[in-house]
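Pinned message: reference record for Crp/Fnr family transcriptional regulator
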Amino acid sequence: MLSRAEKLQQIFKEDAVFSAFNAQSHQTLLQQVKYLRFLPQQQILRYQQKLDDVYVLLSGRMQIGWLLSDGEFKVSDYVKMYSVFNLVPFLQQKPLNFDFYAVEQVEVAVISGQVFLEQLQQQPHAMWQIIQLLSERMYGLMEKNRYLQTASINQKIARHLMILGQQATSASQVHSMIQFKMSQQEFAELLNVSRQTLNKQLQYFIQEHIVEWNYSQIRILDLQRLKQISQL
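Predicted structure (tokens):
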């Protein structure tokens, strides 16, 4: 098992936010970090919170969305990308537009924002790489919006199952069957449909032996069929 510092060093080498920094900058950033641990269902960051530091997901999975006035959490997405998850609001010096909660035990590295910016300003190549990364994410958001506006309900179900399956497994692992936990109510909220509508549409996927869904346990049996169905 890697230590928290070793996990962060690995992210520095592999992630586009940090990989263009030189080795000396990596060491400088490592000296200005603190580590936080969150239990399942614990709030990590809150809506409208303004952050002066850079937050990096080291392990675990988060859900993002909005905590409603009645105490219900409206899920928008799930995050298992081991990278900076507040990069845009940090660089824009804007408050967060989501609440962040731990789905399972989560570890986060908090890097000094001042030191991060100082190192970034000294290295044009690293700055250019982050500009490219933000451009890619903006393009991806536009593509996602187009997809959500034009895809059928079955295509959306297939796409979300693929994404959740990818988040539930390591990229280096090969699985004949992907398994993870999520209730139909939680999945329906991701799609912004009623649980009854979701249950009706899921019958096709179950009858075709593409997925199994028992209580809160999802098994993806045919990932290739999901990919085919999800395509516009």
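Pinned by admin. Summary line: The longest strand covers residues 73-79.
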